[in-house]
């Protein structure tokens, strides 16, 4: 199992996260963008979603289902970031994320594609250098999210 965050590490990471995504409107915007880019790069992933089955990206890029799912994912990540220094709470949040994705047939590779897109969006917003300051945190979070899938 991946090492949990210390209290100090968590506070630093949480402050950065909250600056970037603390407001729900920011999470909604970024969540929708993650899935737009994910479906651009992997159009076959649309089939895993009720709003995308049998459709092309142009048909769903602004639909309520895509926006709602993007916000749901970002809200889940937001909640995880609030408890990353509490192993019991973090583990419970991760287990929920794993079971939810596993029952839908989502693989670690597919989840990784979404996380890579989120990293690109983050770099676009704050610059690669700032992102590199948080690289170790991102590696640990990525490892947690993909373990067990």
Précis, in short:
The chain is mainly α.
> What average pLDDT do the residues reach?
83
Beta-strand content bin: under 5%
What gyration radius follows from the Cα positions, in whole Å?
A: 15 Å
Largest sheet: none
Fraction of residues in helix = over 70%
What general outline do the C-alpha atoms trace? globular
Note down, in words, how this protein is organized:
With 149 residues, the chain is mostly helical. 74% of the residues lie in helices and 0% in strands. It is built from 8 helices and no strands. It has helices at 7-21, 24-41, 57-60, 64-82, 87-103, 108-126, 128-133, 135-146. The radius of gyration is 15 Å and the shape is globular. The model has no long low-confidence stretch (mean pLDDT 83).
List the helices and strands and how they pair.
Blueprint: H1 7-21, H2 24-41, H3 57-60, H4 64-82, H5 87-103, H6 108-126, H7 128-133, H8 135-146
Keywords:
149 residues, mainly alpha
